[in-house]
Amino acid sequence: MKRVLIATDKPFASAAVKQIAGIIADAGYEIKMLEKYTSKAELLEAVEDVHAIIIRSDIIDREVLEAAKELEIVVRAGAGYDNVDLVAATESGVCVMNTPGQNSNAVAELVFGMLVYKARGFFNGSSGSELREKTLGIHAYGNVGRYVALIAKGFGMKVYAFDPFVSKESIEKDGVVALESEDALYSTCQYVSLHIPATEKTKKSINFDLLSKMPKGACLINTARKEVIDEEGLLQIMETRADFTYLSDIEPGVNDIFAEKYKGRYFFTPKKMGAQTEEANVNAGIAAAKQIAGFFANGDQTYRVNK
Ligand code: 3PG
User: Fold this and answer.
1) Scanning 44, 74, 117, 305, which has its CA 20 to 30 A from the CA of 235?
2) Closest protein CA for atom 10 of ligand 1
3) Chain segment 76-99, per-residue pLDDT in tens
4) Quick check: pTM over 0.85?
């Protein structure tokens, strides 16, 4: 019998676990749970006898893959898979998938939660500003970027996007202005929302030069990955531009410096929570369970991300 492990340091909502368990049981597989684990040793032990693993931002590195002797598939219930060693997975003959789009609306809604919070002076009682007519740049027009655009239009914002992998037509059919370069996006927009993945190319790519192009009252919103920010450059811009605000769903490594020096110009969620809604957990969890069932039953490899 196939065994499927749900290994989530940050657990899914219980409604999601219930539905994932139902799909796994209906497919005739056994389910194993490892939630809120506190050490890698627990993960290494839990993976020993399983054929499939469902994860979130949990780290699946070479050591974990080597410990998982029976493993055939890992599904990252979510979008970004920079937490999985794809090379090691391929070498171990393990298929890695994600579940694109399933938690995107949740992330986009958090972007606006943070944007309104910032525009209204972090609810400190003083007179804030409105988002209507302000410029918003969407950096990468994937699933999350599209939802961000949809919500931004509702707020009456002027919406721009840059994504070298998406055609101008497909961006502009959403009523969004497609710009030709990162420079153009950052020079045009007071608010920029980041949705790029963390890859060798994008790591530290959001740097001082780029941020310094942003207009007065600049605000960067990061619900993507902290690795894409050049933190030295970020500190430099915070230091040299008193009008610059940073909002992030992922605390930067330089969190203490922000707390010490930039009060009132930043907001960080206490724990990455863009995808922390019951709906996103249910959607991504169900997709992951179904993808595993399809893989074992028919060899379906849609959404495979490693070669
Ligand atoms: C993703 O890549 O899907 C998001 O960053 C959500 O990550 P999480 O499942 O760890 O909340």
Assistant:
1) 117
2) 57
3) 999 999 999 999 999 999 999 999
4) yes
